[in-house]
Amino acid sequence: MTLTIDGQEVKVPLGTTILDAARKIGAHIPTLCHHPDLCVAGVCRVCSVEVEGMRTLQAACAFPVSAPIKVKTHTEKVRLARRHIVDLLLSDHYGECYACRRNNNCELQSLAKEHGVDFFRFGHPEKPAHAIDTSSYSVVRDLNKCVLCRRCVRTCIDLQEVGTIEVVGRSDHSHIKPFLDKPLGGVVCINCGQCINRCPTGALHAQDHTDEVWAAIDDPKKHVVIQTAPSPRAAIGESFGLPAGTPLTFELNTALRRAGFDRVFDTNFTADLTILEEGTELLLRLKKALLLREPAAFPQFTSCSPGWVKYLEHFYPEYIPNLSTAKSPQQMFGAVLKTYYAEKHGIDPKDIVTVALMPCSAKKFECNRPEMADSGFKDVDYGLTTRELAKMIRESGINLPDMPKSDFDNPFGTATGSGVIFGATGGVMEAALRTVIELVCGIKVEDLFEHANIKPVRGFEGVRYVELPITAVGPVPDVLKHLFPHWNFLKGATLKVAVAHGTANAKKVMEDIKKGGQFSKCHFIEFMGCPGGCIGGGGQPIPTSPEIRAARAAAIYAEDAAYEIRKSHENPDVALIYKEFLTDGPCGHQSHELLHTHYTPRGKYID
Amino acid sequence: MLMTERDRVTGEIKSLADKLGHNRTSMVPILQDVKRKYHQIDSFAMQVIADELGIHPVEVYSVASFYSFLGEHIQGKFVIRLCRTISCDMQDKDRVARQLENDLGITFGETTADGKFTLEWANCMGMCDQGPAMLVNDRVFAKVTPERVHEILQECRSAFGQHATERKEVHLV
Amino acid sequence: MNTIPTFASMDPEAGLKKALGLSRPDIIAEISASGLKGRGGAGFPTAVKWNFAASAKADRKYIICNADEGEPGTFKDRVILQDHADLVFEGMTIAAKAVGAKEGILFLRGEYTYLRPHLEAVLAKRREKKLLGKDVLGANLEFDIRIFMGAGAYICGEETALIECLEGFRGEPRNRPPFPVNTGFLDRPSVVNNVETLAWAACILQQGADWFKSKGTEKSTGIKIFSISGDCKCPGVYEFPMGITVAELLSKVGGENARAVQIGGASGQCIPASEFSRSIAFEDIPTGGSVIVFGPHRDMLDVLHNFLEFFVDESCGQCTPCRLGNRKLLEGVEMLKAGTCSMAYLRELCALGESMQLSSKCGLGQSSPCAFLSVVKNFRDELMGRTTSLTHA
After folding, report:
1. C5-213: which CATH topology?
2. Is A82 helix (H, G, I), strand (E, B) or coil?
3. Residue from the list A66, A88, A170 with its beta carbon closest to the beta carbon of C321
4. b/e burial code for range B104-138 (CB count within 10 A of at least 16 → b)
5. Is C328 within 8 Å of A171 when comparing Cβ atoms?
6. How far away is chain C from the Cα of A416, in angstroms, using its nearest Cα?
7. What is the pTM of this model?
8. Is the peptide bond before A411 cis (omega within 30 degrees of 0)?
9. ipTM for the predicted complex
């Protein structure tokens, strides 16, 4: 199909939208409600264009080409209509750009600039019409800035299938609201923050804890330590103008020290610890089922994504026994810092402030779970998003890309490639498989998968399923000898695993399990709450798109490939903690006290 | 057998969904039925409907909030809707409105304290040649005059009183 | 007293009987020859619509009768359904035969709930007489009709919004294309026709295309049912041939001294007395049949105020121009009434109205500024006389 856009011919497949056709030839059509991750809405009308022979303007994002039409993208009518639309949006958008956290990263602001808005043609609200909803630990709603593009609604209902928010009311009193207009903290919300990532304005943002963290840094009595997760390191460059997929791991270490953090640790340490604990838990379940012939909850589900965990607690509480009891790496780190680390370095744990740099808004909820205080203190004091930390770095006068590189602090300074790939969907599964294969089969992963890259679990396919036959078993390694006499019960078994990312895909897998389908036969399933896994987390720099997430994932896998140690069980710091502190080994009494948790069946009904 | 109100609502919604289908196309008829029986669609009912139709409660809330005849707010046994659109407006609907307010002691958008009457504005109800027009539940009244308001309200009151003693729900049709 | 003599003169089975003896293309050809255009106001050729749906391939197709008559000043569908429901159902059955549909839905506005028992009774009788059911009149046609009640939303008169409501969603118009004739109710081909259109289709099958064409104009054939209200002696439902002039119409309803008439409802045009020689037809002043007469004493700004309050309340709110534009126009009218609107701002509002007509997602936002623009154009003197300052903008 050939169509003409501004006199230029472009050939596209039948059904391509005018917008996509225009992008193909570099013709810019402004958009607002359109988002590459979401279905078409066609509601903002900013992308209006003129199609020859049609009386009205057409929304380029929603018009599929089925005839050789002639399109004009910036005629007088089009320019004026777009200008009017932007003017109307501004007449209903409270706030000044310089007092907004999305300043310079706001699509409405860009539109206003692009359309030469130099006064408020149809007025501008002088006072806010809505109270800001700060009830959630993770997501803040400010309806005064909402432009009703509905991207959050399509994210929450279509992309994530959580269904927290919808358009409520009609006409100019329609607003985006949770069920019964209750505060967000009181309804079914998994805190994934995907809505934030797709909000074009400052109407949705994450809770901000930077003031508290600054206060701790400024307090000389406090020992402020930060752990950084792999995904933010692969994305924070975007906040400093670098292209997606530019890892700044070691520049960040320097910047954090200069900003005032006393110690900078790598969350990968507890990611490796998680693999040992969660992997052992899986093996124990297998032992129970295959050796002891007792009932065991299969498949085992990963528990490191707090969005997924809360999703399960709400929608599938009957499957809580399947969730690994292992805490997430963030929470394990907090617990270890306020016990093992405090003891080892003679610091009073009450003076330690633990901060976590996470790609995630749900981590803010997770660290506030009442049960997350096994160290005797709040294990993790503050979870910061990538965006918040970028702000702190800018406030410190630091241009992150210019920083010299430096290593993480010790202890916990050694990381493995397995810890790094936790950031991408399939990464936890890959890390677990690397360890389980080696501990059980007594072979090298490299013997099965080239460079230990377990490619079948990688990628962005919504749900992935892999079978691994265990043809031979090796000797039980020392660290597990107290739990397993031998591996014979696994010989000849086929390990069935699956990976799902984004809760809509998780829902597909869970519904299949409920029906006794393919996935109910799995032994281990990795679930990530966010599309793409942590690299697409709700705390990451805005915008997001499939391309941006792919670039971040590529950075993570490249980092993994560059590590000398690539397997969690080979991490010497992990071995050391089992030797010095958690002396009864993985899934032993001490680790259960500190590194494992329990869950709350929440259900989906609310009062 | 004594059933709690919630069991009753759940049972009714379930059987209606069984009849109409457990999918979204049953949404509006179910909402209409619940509204007719209970004069409101409360939080619990919306969650049951969502469950039966396999969608999220907020979607039910969203749909209910869109339509003038639905919505979660509680209404009286008699919902009086006075047309405010042009032809009725030109035929002195304001005087009828004032008289309704006077006789009921409430303003538009409110429900009487005894839960009998709700007063609402309506947009054009297709009685433009016989305005001012108003609906009392499903029944239409044309050429309403301020004097007739009292008479219409009395009719409602007596209908309600009579059947209320028999513990039956009634509607003017 | 029957207000629609032509419908009253029809035999409410003859059209269907004739259609059952015809092939699908022949039925559509008959409708096509009649020149029948959608009577809801948009004026889309009925035969073209049927033909699209007939040629679409699908496991199921639907015939939907749009009885969500909500346009201010329109009530003819209520009268047709009250007095001639048989003709409407017959039209639906003929359409079903023409496009190959088994299921018909009458979408009845919630405000007309009181008509439902009567309509159900008519349907039951038709089933009894085998005019509906598994095998209509033994002619190997399966078709039945159910009634779906609207829930109070003017926008559901827009066909894709109506379908959204049927599917259990907010009545928010869809993007077009795709059109309902291809992707309609439950993504199946669906014909959505106005009550009156379907009644006329039944008449055309009965009396022939030539009979229908003998009335009206070349581009707007046939008779139209009008809803007349406002400042005239005899408001009510009338049938007039298409092409009737405004003046002729007014003389028949006792509204000769009108200063203006609103034709096509709130979303239509406001015609001043100086243009009463214009004719009501698709080629001049299109209409769904609503005529509201404004007598000499009416303040047109009050009228406009009422219309805009209506649109602000009834906009679905999804697209920016309609959601916020109507609000701005309403505020503009309030400013005009208060005498605080500058000429510059009024011009700005008119430009906004034109942008709304061009860029709104559906017919509501595209037509809601019409009244504003025509009142500003035709009654400018009255409006601007109230302007007391030029400070705004």
Report:
1. Rossmann fold (3.40.50)
2. helix
3. A88
4. bebeeeebeeeebbbbbbbbbbbbbbbbbbbbbbb
5. no
6. 50
7. 0.95
8. yes
9. 0.95
